[in-house]
Specification:
Aminopeptidase; alpha+beta; 2 helices; single chain
Length: about 90
C-alpha cells in the first residue's frame, strides 16, 4: 500500500511516497507566497515506474491545496500534464 508523507516549511514543501518502508517517489514545491504552491519536480524512483505513484503524489498535493485554499502552479512537466489534461483541477490552478 502506498503511504504519502508531507512536510512543509515556510518557503517549500515535499511529498514523499513510501511502500513498506521504502521511499519510491517524491514531489517538491516552492512557496513564494503563502497561498501558492509551485510544483517544480515529481520523480518516481527506478524500479517503481508504471504503478501510478506520480499521479497519486500529485493528487495528494491537489487535496492539500484544496483543504488549505492554495493555488498550484505546475512547473514540473508531469504535474502540468496531469493537472491541465481535464477541467477537474481548475479550482486549484493559479
Amino acid at each position: 500500500m502506498l503511504d504519502i508523507k508531507h512536510t512543509e516549511t515556510e518557503r517549500n514543501g515535499l511529498f514523499e511516497a513510501w511502500i513498506e518502508g521504502t521511499q519510491v517517489g517524491e514531489m517538491t514545491y516552492q512557496r513564494p507566497m503563502p497561498e501558492q504552491m509551485i510544483i517544480d519536480h515529481t520523480r518516481v524512483f527506478d524500479g517503481f515506474e508504471g504503478r501510478g505513484i506520480a499521479r497519486q503524489i500529485v493528487l495528494a498535493a491537489v487535496d492539500f491545496a484544496r483543504i488549505h485554499s492554495r493555488k498550484i502552479v505546475p512547473v514540473c512537466s508531469y504535474a502540468r500534464a496531469r493537472l491541465t489534461r481535464t477541467d477537474d483541477y481548475k479550482d486549484v490552478l493559479a
